[in-house]
Amino acid sequence: MREPNEADDAAVARARAADAAPLRSVAALPGPRGWPLIGNLLQFDLPRLHRQFEDWADRHGPTYRLRLGRREVLVISDAETIAALLRDRPDTWRRMRPIEAVIREAGGHGVFSAEGDDWRRQRRLVMSAFDPGHLKRFYPSLQRVTERLMASWREAARRGEAIDLQASLMRYTVDVTTGLAFGVDLNTIDAPHPLQEHLDKLFPMLFRRVNLPFPYWHYLRLPIDREYDRHLRRVHEAVRGFVQAARQRLQDEPTRRERPTDLLEAMLAARDADGSALTEEEVAGNVLTVLLAGEDTTANTLGWAIWLLHEHPDDWQALVAEVDAALGDARLPPSFDAARGLASIEASVGEAMRLKPVAPLLFMEANRETALAGFRLPPGAVVFCLMRRAALDARLAEDVADFRPGRWQDGADRAVQKASMPFGAGPRLCPGRYLALLEMKMVLGMLARNFELLEVGPEGGGAPGERMAFTMFPVGLKMRLAERARR
Fold first, then answer.
1. What is the CA radius of gyration of the chain?
2. Is the peptide bond preceding residue 360 cis, with omega within 30 degrees of 0?
3. Is 385 annotated as a binding residue?
4. Contacts of 191 (CB under 8 A, 6+ apart)
5. How far is CA 8 from the centre of its chain?
6. What's the rounded Cα separation, in Å, for the pair 345 and 325?
7. What is the rounded distance in angstroms from the CA atom of residue 450 to the CA atom of residue 199?
8. Cys-Cys crosslink for 163: which of 139, 268, 285, 479, Cβ 3.0 to 4.6 Å?
9. pLDDT value of residue 6
């Protein structure tokens, strides 16, 4: 039997505090009017779901209710309440079960979708592949991929061509992720690879399934479902190829079992040494999970950061000055430690993730009876967390809606920083956060050292639109560059 832990104690303390105060009913909260029986389900606008929920918060208040069929849903946008919920994972709270079901069906049952003891067991292995020590050993490969991206952008600059920014960044992050996690050099930057193309199609299809009220595809296959199956089948073929290649490396070089060089080798070595460590399904599921989590999240954050910096030239020039001073004659950060030390980039990225979080919503479900924000919630209760709304709470600072990277360096805006949780919070903090920050420092450092930003934005000008497709991405970002003169 599992021993009680700190999360259990915290949950008990909150429950006792709730017992001492009158608790409210979620049903009594204001919220958008829905339809009989189906509630608000048919009102959801999936491509702009995050904006829709934020608009409803403007209309009904920071805490309101939705109805999914007959189920009442609590919607919250207070940072302290959200942080308390996340600290109680995975024992009191989990992702909504339909999300886990869709991910499992896709063959992606890994650390992202696992819960409870299942998650604890898998997380130890996955974390080891993304710790700073392993990233430092991987740094030469990261430099090589970044050099390819630089060469691609230099060629576009010389030709005066607009770069499809999101497509370019997606190729970069796929190459980095497959190299670090699976020991495979896909090089999608120089030549398109089918895997990346299939992943791009899967993201909006997965998001659509996650948000549908009923898994109709179990009973009826529409053309979009057959297309989904085709893309998923091709991705699984690639995953099997990664696994087979890693097994061959372990067979050819048995010493790798003691010192695996990537996540996949570590999982297979653990699987072979102790069958209880990971099942074959979990090995494949974590490969798919890392692919899905490692591509669009970092690429979309980079896209938003580059656009915001272009819109704020003083902040961009301050970043360029820091990079020039740190890199000297080098075109890229020359070492792992040099990249990690680029404080202006980290501040700019932190501000971009606060204003344009790629995960602006979290959908949670209670594992047991609990209390939250003055409401008693039964097992199975659903809570939607508005992550961006919490980070932009006007009570935090007068300039909370402004892009000001300096707030991450001067230490004056602690409350604003705490309210931003782009990597989550509590025990389930994103295991890939160190890699994501390192990738962003490499790309922004390379961009600042070698190029001038001429144009960044949609064709025709204006701010890029926001669209949800598993994560929130900028629509139609194009970038034009000029090469900087060498010092």
1. 23
2. no
3. no
4. none
5. 27
6. 13
7. 30
8. 479
9. 52
Give Cβ neighbours of residue 168 (< 8 Å, ≥ 6 apart): 149, 152, 153, 189
pLDDT tens per residue across span 58-112: 999 999 999 998 899 999 999 999 999 999 988 899 989 888 888 888 887 777 7
pLDDT of residue 1: 40
Q: Which domains does the chain have, with CATH numbers?
A: 1-106+360-421 (3.30.43.20)
Between CA 100 and CA 334 the distance in angstroms is 41
**CA 260 – CA 282 distance, rounded (Å):** 18
The neighbouring-strand residues paired with 384 are 75, 363
Contacts (Cβ under 8 Å, ≥6 apart) of 429: 423
Check: CB of residue 234 under 8 Å from CB of residue 195. yes
**β pairing state of 71-76 and 382-386:** parallel
Q: Which H/E stretch holds residue 172?
A: helix 165-182
Could you give the CA distance from residue 330 to residue 446 in angstroms, rounded to a whole number?
10
Q: Terminus-to-terminus CA distance in the chain, angstroms?
A: 65
Give the integer Cα–Cα distance in Å for 54 and 51. Answer: 5
